Amino acid sequence: MFSLFRKKDVIPDNAGPATQQGKAPNTIARPLEPAAAPIPARSDAPAPEAYNLSELSIEVEETASHLSPAEEEAVVLHANGQIALAIRALAAHIPAIGGQRRTESWLMLFELYQQAGDRKAFDDLALAYVLEFEISPPLWRGNTTAPDAAPAQAGSYIALPAQLNANSFERELDRLIDVCKSGNTVRLDFSKVSEIDPFAAAELLSLWPRTRKQGATLQPLGVASFAALLQSRIETGRRLPAEAPFWLLLIELMQATGEAERFENIAIDYAITFEVSPPSWDDRLVPRQAPPKSAPQAAAQAPTPSPTMPDRLIISGILIDGAPLVLNQMREFVRQHGKPTLDFAAVSRVDFETGGQLLNLTMELLSSGHAPAFTRVNELVLGLMRLMGIADLVSISRQ
Question: Which of 5, 39, 247, 331 has its CA 20 to 30 A from that of 296?
Answer without folding.
Answer: 331
